[in-house]
Specification:
The protein has two domains: about 55 residues, Arc Repressor Mutant, subunit A (Orthogonal Bundle), CATH 1.10.10; about 140 residues, Tetracycline Repressor, domain 2 (Orthogonal Bundle). About 70% of the residues lie in helices and about 0% in strands.
Length: about 230
């Protein structure tokens, strides 16, 4: 996980105290760990507030109040609300990347199995962390944060799409399929994933189903009848 901002040797404690010098390695390490934990609490609280109320009402003061610390501590860790939002997006990207590596790149999977794993990775991420996906959707749809989201999240999204396209190309090669429009198929699956995330976000009370998995599998079976 990317650390939002390095905590220096004079990092303030929860009360904002910066007066205690740290000269021993053990004390520095403990202070650094406390600083990391403090920064993570701020990120977690920001995610919760945005998920519950949207972006407009989320201020540094409000976040500090919810965390139970001083505004100075929030500013110390992140500097500004934009930098805090950047840290939130980086955290969300890191968490999805971690799940992608564990599921899609699990050793021993065939190309076809990796395609299915990529679809299920997005589905499981949404089920396990609906608040994270909600915040991601909010960031991508709000004019204040849209450009920030594109700058941080889009390169990763394009990388996942490229990997999925490579898996599909390998399935086509192994199965002897010819004349398939792999680019369109990969884009279509990508649309399914993002569409499911948006639908689930704006319809949180609907019963979860296997619609994403089933629809993707039907599309894949149509394109690769011998492989799925």
């Amino acid at each position: 996980m990317k650390t939002p901002k390095a905590v220096t040797a004079t990092a303030p404690d929860e009360a904002g105290d910066t007066s205690t010098p740290m000269t021993k390695t053990g004390r520095k390490d403990r202070r650094h760990l406390r600083g990391q934990a403090s920064a993570q609490r701020i990120i977690d609280t920001t995610i919760r507030l945005i998920g519950e109320e949207g972006i407009a009402g989320v201020t540094m003061q409000r976040i500090a109040s919810e965390v139970g610390s001083s505004n100075a501590l929030v500013v110390f860790h992140f500097g500004s609300k934009e930098k805090l939002f950047r840290a939130v997006l980086e955290y969300l990207n890191d968490q999805f990347e971690s799940l992608w590596q564990k599921t899609v790149w699990k050793p021993g999977l065939s190309a076809a199995e990796r395609v299915i794993a990529s679809i299920d990775c997005a589905r499981h991420f949404r089920i396990q962390h609906p608040d994270w996906v909600t915040v991601w959707v909010v960031f991508g749809g709000d004019r204040q944060t849209m450009q920030l989201d594109r700058m941080i999240s889009l390169p990763s999204d394009q990388a996942y799409l490229a990997q999925s396209r490579a898996f599909l190309t390998e399935v086509a090669r192994e199965g002897g399929y010819e004349g398939l429009d792999i680019d369109t198929l990969a884009e279509g699956l990508n649309y399914l994933v993002h569409g499911a995330w948006y639908w689930d976000t704006f319809n949180p009370d609907t019963v979860r189903s296997d619609a994403l998995h089933a629809t993707a599998l039907a599309l894949l079976r149509q394109a690769f009848p011998k492989s799925f």
